[in-house]
Write a structure and sequence with these properties.
binds 2-oxoglutaric acid, 28% helix, three-stranded antiparallel β-sheet
């Protein structure tokens, strides 16, 4: 990441990395997500929660090694440290597809409904495009710079579902990744096409906050056995703070709480 990239992330709260996922990896991520959606059926996303108008999968580190590369990507981790500092961990890795037929609109929100505190920023999200994000298929919208407002949209906007005068949409090609300071106001938009708009969300929190999905409890023993030391660190599996925090953690993120 260049100094200019880091400054952009700090000032505007987002940065789009182009061409991060190569063709083979993209094919694998799409194939595995589609397979899991088929296999899990009604249960899909239940480790987090369902969202009407979207397909969801949760707890993805437990469901395939191809997903480990997502949350350990060096450029993403560099950005996580720029925003959160050295004390961070993965909160969750989820899949979200805005479904066709005008579905998928979300209110503007900050993840976990948090504003920065005396320690600084606490939430960071990376949105991995598994399909092109076009003006019509439900791209992510965001209000640049709003992470510095110290406010959450639900408290100050009359209608967080309405278009915001300063909002932008993140457009890109499958394989691009949107990095966000997740205090920045953002949300999914409606998909006006006839096919789902697929993405992965690699969500990170500061070490003193609960994980959205308590990884230590959700990852099966056989998954934990295959993880590298670096993955254990990313998931904070050996951080004793998590055991106490987890009681409060599960299921909290964004406006879905
Ligand atoms: O998928 C998107 O475009 C954004 C989703 C989001 O912000 C959320 O689910 O909290």
């Amino acid at each position: 990441m260049t100094e200019q990239d880091a400054r952009h992330l700090e000032e505007f709260g987002y940065l789009i990395l182009r061409g991060v996922i190569d063709a083979d990896w993209l094919e694998e991520l799409r194939r595995e997500s589609d397979r899991l959606l088929r296999e899990e059926g009604e249960r899909a996303g239940s480790e987090f929660r369902p969202e009407p108008g979207s397909d969801r999968l949760a707890n993805l580190i437990d469901k395939g090694e191809c997903f480990e590369r997502v949350v350990s990507h060096p450029a993403v981790l560099e950005a996580v440290e720029i925003v959160l500092g050295p004390d961070w961990k993965l909160s969750s890795l989820n899949y979200r597809a805005a479904l066709p037929g005008q579905q998928g609109l979300q209110p503007l929100h900050c993840d976990m409904g948090l504003v920065p505190d005396e320690r600084g920023y606490a939430v960071f999200n990376s949105i991995w495009m598994l399909d092109d994000f076009t003006p019509d298929n439900g791209p992510t919208r965001f209000v640049p710079g709003s992470h510095r407002s110290g406010q959450i949209p639900q408290q100050v906007l009359q209608d967080p579902n309405a278009p915001h005068p300063q909002e932008m949409v993140a457009l890109g090609k499958a394989g691009d990744v949107i990095l966000t300071n997740a205090h920045m106001w953002h949300g999914g938009t409606a998909n006006r096409t006839t096919v789902p708009r697929r993405s992965l969300h690699g969500f990170y929190v500061r070490g003193d906050k609960p994980q959205q999905q308590y990884q230590k409890r959700l990852l099966r023993p056989q998954t934990q056995a295959r993880l590298s030391a670096q993955m254990r660190r990313i998931l904070a599996l050996d951080d004793p703070r998590n055991d106490a925090l987890s009681e409060f953690g599960s299921g909290r993120s964004g406006f879905l709480k």
